[in-house]
């Protein structure tokens, strides 16, 4: 049952080209977003489509794969865990971020 704790799986389209940072020693970090779509029919029988945006972060070998193969608009599947962090912005206000730390990525579509 431990394998199911804090597990996120998403399939969506990449919203922007990943931002790649390389640190001392060559370790890489990839930051990017994906959009997931869901549709349903409302009370009037009309189709309604909702888009949710997800902030993703990947490290190491996963970031290297993303750097090579993932571009804006590409459909991908990811698996990872939900993480939360906070920081103080330039005005001294505390900001909170929720993101998915990606462990695996699968390229879909063309």
From TrEMBL:
One of its GO terms (cellular component) is nucleoid. Keywords: DNA-binding. One of its GO terms (biological process) is DNA replication. The keyword Protease does not apply. GO terms for molecular function: single-stranded DNA binding. InterPro entries: NA-bd_OB-fold, Primosome_PriB/ssb, ssDNA-bd. CDD domains: SSB_OBF. Homotetramer. This is Single-stranded DNA-binding protein. It comes from Flavobacterium urumqiense.
